[in-house]
Structures
1.
Amino acid sequence: MRKRSNVKYPLNRSIICASALFILLLGIVISAATVLVFRTSIYARYEKQMESILNYVEAHIDHDDMAECANTFVKSEKYEEFQAFLDTFIDTYADNAFINDPESDLKYKDVHYIYIMKVADVGDPYEIYEVCTANTTYEKENFPEYVLTLGDHSDDLDGWYGEDTRKQFRAILQGSEDVFLTNASEWGVDYTLARPVVNSRGEHYGVLCVDVSKDQLIETVFKTVIINIALVVGLGILFIALLLVWMRLNVTKPLHDLENSVVSFAETTAGKHDPDELVFTPPVIRSHNEVASLANAVTKLSADMRDYIKYMVAAEDEARGLQEHVNEMNDIAYKDALTQVKNKAAYDEKAESLAWDIMNSTAKFGIVMVDLNYLKVINDKYGHDKGNEYIIGSCKLICETFVHSPVYRIGGDEFVAVLEGQDYNNREKLLKQLKEAFASALNESGMPPWNRCSAAVGMAVFQAGDNVEAVLKRADQAMYEAKARMKAGQG
């Protein structure tokens, strides 16, 4: 008969209770930390991809034409083309196209809505009007009554959005920054990226939005947190199980040998960085009891630890590679696909840099605005392929003139060059050279029309009291004056 222990607090029971408390506290701490870290990380990934979607969509908008449609509620040919683009985008790419990271599990199918809406002043009967929304073929064929189009609005003021949401959209419209917000509407609760859109005159005419289902975000965060907590708790339970096995052993010679082996392993591997050097040599135990089992467990644990460290090293290398890939994708995101010069997003970033220079009183730059002539004629008469050649040829003339300055394509037929340093010092000479280059190309009667490039050019220089937008507007005004003179000369 087994003798009853007289120990008031058995060590085994104490270890079990302490281990259970440890796992509980560990689970709570890890849960809180994981929720914070992964929620921030996943939201950041969604936000980055939502920005990519808006950049891609906005690149296809003719803002002047869209502003006119929003003001008159009359569809234009360009409006119909953009509507078809949005619908094709949703139908074709939403289920199988990745954004930025091909290893990511976030795809376009997470997108709930993409749309432009007009936000009217307070006192308007409806305040919110539809301008353009991406509609899937399935929606158009099966639920045509729910398909929104230009000028649509709710039947009552609070039908689509509540007062607080309408105030948010109105504030966004008056600003100039992208805003992330939780958007509660009759279609559900979405996480929204809203961007004010303006025409070439700087007039705000609407808000461009992309929505992601809030439930989708919460589900993604929840799954990630549960998986990581399960891994942590699983490793904790494994560790405690091994510890309990060790506590069941007798303090005997085999245990002493095992202790010596563990101490020797710790001493010989201290400061080692090569996982292959983390090799545990178990003691020779012939008793075939719990001590032998513990020795085997420690041996396996050391091997698992070595494999885990190798895995972490490999994971770190992979993460570094992914970061490099993200950097490459960022480079692509700031480059115009047709001309290979920088795009509107890159110009916006440059404008922020120039704003800092202005703030620090170190700004010294000029802006050249170039607007291509006859592009629509080339597109309509010879096709968009020739129109692309016309754009590329014109861009080449600009780049060959401003060799030391960044050139940006900010619209379908609009380019901007920011002159600094050597090009800024020679700006008048270079401006004249560019105008002569376009005039020479236009007069090449032996060349096909798509190689006879023509453009109106305007330049403005930063002056004390200016901001970047003011310099750009003056360059734009100078360009329009040049265009008017060119038209008058043709007449």
2.
Amino acid sequence: MATQEEIEQHYDIDNEFYALILDDKYLGYTCGVWDQADTIEQSQADKFARLCRYAHVKPNSKVLDVGCGWGGLSTYIGENFSNTKVHGLTLSTKQLEFIKNAKNPIASVELSAWQSFAVPEPKFDAVISIGCLEHFATYEDSISGKQREIYKKFFDWCLSVTTPEAYVGLQTIIITRLPNNISELRDSWLVHKIFPGSALASISDIQEAATDKYEISEVSRIGHDYVPTLQAWIDKMVVNKNELFSMYGEELYNQYIEYFEGAKRCFQTGYFDLYQVSLKRALPTRIFKT
């Protein structure tokens, strides 16, 4: 798993840096849903709406947000579900400070990896994780075939922190195949360079890891939606170019433009895809003799 130092290397550049790139309302740093949206803010809201539906969030729910970012999910839930509480986990001290300073009445947050999070009482009614699974296994884990055991432990942990009726709403980038050419290999390298200590899962990784723990209730594959999402971030960077240059320098600006353009190409070619899934707790299907 990516260490706190590796997470902070990316996410703790500065909260204002990301405010100059991401949408103004949610600071959503993952793919939006563009079926009906015509703005980046609406695409983020539509993403949260789908994942709340996938996780069966209801009024009075207690929701665990694994990899909570800057608290966009809790902002959305606070506007759409009454008497609901959201507890976020992050390894970014800047994100922790941002959420605490926002003083969202429905949100709490702590600096913790999911492996270190104590089982609560009462347990959670839903788990949502958006763009966090990518950080659970390292590139070295994937090369050595250890990634599925790590994902299995995550799903076991989800079972341990939730009520028997709880669903998991998961969104993650997936890798669909080997690279077709040097250009795709280079673009993939750019993504791994930006996100040290991280690697992408395949659909089969997730399916095997969830077997006998969760069953797939609903699923969407929307990698094409990452193209307009990334373009919206590029467009905002261009609009704020002078400010980004003066505050963070030309090198960092160019690095992120190159990263966003490379990631966009990966989604355009189908080398990367995006997986949104509703996971329902699996019931025993066999009786075993002891």
3.
Amino acid sequence: MLSPLWGHEYMEIKTFINKIKEAGYDGLDTWMPEDPVVKRELLDALQHHELLLVSHQHQAHGVDFTAFKTSFLEYLHFSAQGDPVLINSHTGRDWFSFAQNLELVDIAAEFSAKTGIPVVHETHRGRMGYSPGHLQDYFDARPELTITADLSHWVCVTESLLENFSSTIGQAITRTRHIHARIGFEEGPQVPDPRAPEWKYAVDRFLSWWDAMVEQRARIGDALFMFTTEFGPPPYLPTLPFSNQPVADQFAINHYMKDLLRTRYAEYV
């Protein structure tokens, strides 16, 4: 079980890593800091506590595809620092052509072949994998393509619990290497609090997908299958009008999800 750094950037990095170690996490899911001092502190703290690292590539940028492609490969190499278990990639743009995004998938595959670090492509809004219907074309073109399943984005984009995408969901289950365990709903990427009874219907649906993903990885003998409890801070986490106070505590929600998933999948993770 991994904790996100997202939402806790205000904390001194060593303090936060101590916090997640004490909370019982196995590692951290985050992007590499640009500041070399902070990066060194991060990697030293992870090593000291013997915590795993999933590195998050979301920084690639460019005014056109050619510039983005160059930046994408640069940030894959940047994300490889610290010997991550895998790189979770925000690959491409939803407005790039199919051929352009596919070129980025192939660049990532070549990078993985050379470095031995898996690159998995997150199902994220605004990116190549922003919707199930869109990603199906990439599944068809690249049988080896693997994903970080964050189905909260698909639920939000399609305004559904994916009832009409059973075939694509089936393929996503077989291709998932990593799960971002955030629960979305038809009108948003994050329910306010998964502990609240009014969100049980969404929690149950996400658990059913995660059950299938975990069972699939167990069938093929994957000895290291990871969840990141990725409930985020405001504005993902709703706030009260005028005071802007969060309606719940982000760390407490993620801690709850960690314990829920660890109990549910005790024989696997």
4.
Amino acid sequence: MATSDAEQKVLDGTVWDEFCDALKEAGKIIRSEQAPKDAFNQAEGYRYLARLLRGGLEGFLEFRDPMFPQLRCGAHETIKLGADNPDNRYESAPINPDYNYRISGNRGTVDYLGISTIINKYASGGTMEVTGHIDARNMEIGADGSLEIIVSRNQQPGNWLPMGEGANSITVRQTFQDRVNEQRAELKIERLGARDDRPEPLTAEKLQRGLMGAVMFVQGSAQLFENWAESFVPATNQLPPADQDYCQSIGGDPNIFYFHSAWELADDEVLIIEAPKIPECQTWNFQLDNWWMESLDYRHHTIHVNKHTAHYEDDGSVRLVVSHSDPGVPNWIETAGHNMGTMCWRWIGADRHPLLDTRVAKLADL
């Protein structure tokens, strides 16, 4: 039998060389013209690439088979991208429109549960189009929290999640108000008709696709969010509404209205963010991110606040204070050693989307 091109590249090591060369090329994104050039932010940038690579290898090499999908948490405390929400648990699985799938499990008590089918092109163009969406508000759920959802091209009775042509992934968002007391949904996905099938062994072609898919994910994701961070610079320390259509095109939740911008503070400065009116909504939150649009370390610092955790003024408004040290006021958002970065505010399931007021002040004056 003749040796295929992929097999030859495995035999002579070219498959690994090409992977390493492409990964080296991704490093240029961290040195983009408007990216911060100090050692601290550059170090976070290269760590960011390493984190994306971990996620890419899992997604494209280990969990890539749509015939045997598994829900995995691909963005979390140490793999971050695109203003990942600290209140969220993200899960994803590969799918193929040629098959039908079942998602089943228990809804838990998490405040928000939403599931989408998407066309994920982060590795080849930078978009993430939603082709179908369902959330807990319009699901049939048993008294014990049990649920079952059919994912297919054609409409099904009961809970049905549409899957458009070209859909290649499932995204599950669980948004917590109170992580300590809420229980996450426990879900699994299976291809209908799989029965006793087993995955095929690794081949040279699968290895080649997996390695190149992973590094293209690193390049595509890093470039996408580097470009977006640069676009925020003209509105630094303001928090205007984002382009909602663009947010949706790169994977935003249909129930969320987003505000994105950049921030930068001197050692003696604070950023005050005020929401004079809080609309009727499922929840809202604010988070502080670094330049690379990674949420700051919420394991060890208070870098975000939501509807449940916030302190409210007597008139129902909210005031947040972003500062390097504790200002001694409610709703302190820690910069966690950063002096610049990006930030995000979300109205989730809101009946309207009020604007936000921002101003920079001296810590001493506060």
